[in-house]
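Submission sheet (multi-component)
Chains listed below:
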Amino acid sequence: MADESSLSTLRSHALKHVLKLALLGAVAVGLSAGQAFAASAHVAVAANFTEPVKEIAAAFKAKTGHELVLSFGASGPFYSQITQDAPFEVFLSADSARPKKLADEGLGVKDSVFTYAIGKLVLWSKAPGVVKGEATLKDAKFAKLSICNPAAAPYGAAAVETMQALKLDAELKPKLVEGANITQAYQFVQTGNAEVGFVALSQVINDKDGSRWMVPQSLYKPITQDAVLLKKGEANVAAKAFIDFLKGPESRAIIEKYGYEVAPGKAS
Amino acid sequence: MTGLPPDIWQPVWLTIELAAITTIILLIVGTPIAWWLARSKAAWKEGVAAVVAMPLVLPPTVLGFYLLVLMGPDGPGGAIAGLWGGRTLAFTFGGLVFGSVIYSMPFVVQPIRNAFDAIGDRPLEVAATLRASPLKAFWTVAVPLARPGFLAGAVLGFAHTVGEFGIVLMIGGNIPGSTKVLSVAIYDYVETSQWREANILAGGMAAFAFVVILTMMMLEKRTARIRG
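Outcome: structure written.
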């Protein structure tokens, strides 16, 4: 009998032990699963930021495991789409007006708006020696000058401001061709259909062959590019983590590498 | 927000002009192709038919991309543009016409080919026994018999050119009065949140599409009655 009872206590001990272990195991698995369980976030990105954001997304994934689903386009249509319930959770605009407007309209999370990059405008040609500063615009020895739609994309607006500041807008108007976004404005120059074009520095920073003129900051209003966490992404860990990551040193280094300025005093 | 922008109708006229010119060119170029496709016994005929039909399935961005490269200064388009001192065929009305002809070709060639196919050999053999030359037989027998096909081809070719978007966006450059057609103007208005203007043009397009489809269906009914 004694044997039996000791056996049963032993058994219940063992059982308790096994249960405890199982529980621990479950917690451990749960924890690690929780960490490995990666969310994903939909991000609408202004076309000029295409290359840097791809690199940032890769670094972000390596660090957090979260996946970003990136859509590229002009800021204007993105704004329209977001007002019509598009499934974006974060919006990296090419301007500061649209993110602010979204926050004011209740479609963006208040106080989430911040400047992630300050864009630089360049006059660019794929041929060497074509662009030689301001004189290239004054002499206008080209048939077509490409810009992106100034009403929908801030780089287009900056290009128009530059031409106005140089008092060349009326003269150059007949030579303008317009891309729907900055990628297309760049394409027109890249395929040679336009000899020169106003593009984002980030697009041509790694291009060694062409010729360029960094448009002086005095000729156009700074292209302050703001990000906003959208209401749709408010509950998404990946979306919030991405906003934080975008403010961090890793992202800032990538952003600067592509020729953007980073807003001062925003380092976290 | 009162009153319409004065230039809202410019893209409409430009689009009608583009569609009309494209349709006329396609009737001239497309008819011999359709005839050959209907009558030829060549083995590689269906290969040509497939090439003509490709714009039906290709995304307009694919055509737009190739056209942008072909029309540029390094492509054949640049050489052609050089004839009148230009550098590129892109960003011109002529370039749009060229792109539209390629894009809308299947919509014109296919109905005409079908109509020629439906005639069969018999009427032409009869014409030949009555000593009509092949050319005379074509004009006096085949063309009148294929009239519904020509009508359908013209209507579809016109309508598809009016509705074209991807190609003109990629090779047009959005130049008012020259390449800013209806579909691009609508895109522009939506982009800049001018929804009233977008609504007017888009609503007009929807009504136009309805009329076109209705016309086509009535044409088909009439053709069926004639054949029956």
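Remark: Chain A touches chain B through 24 residues (CB under 8 Å).
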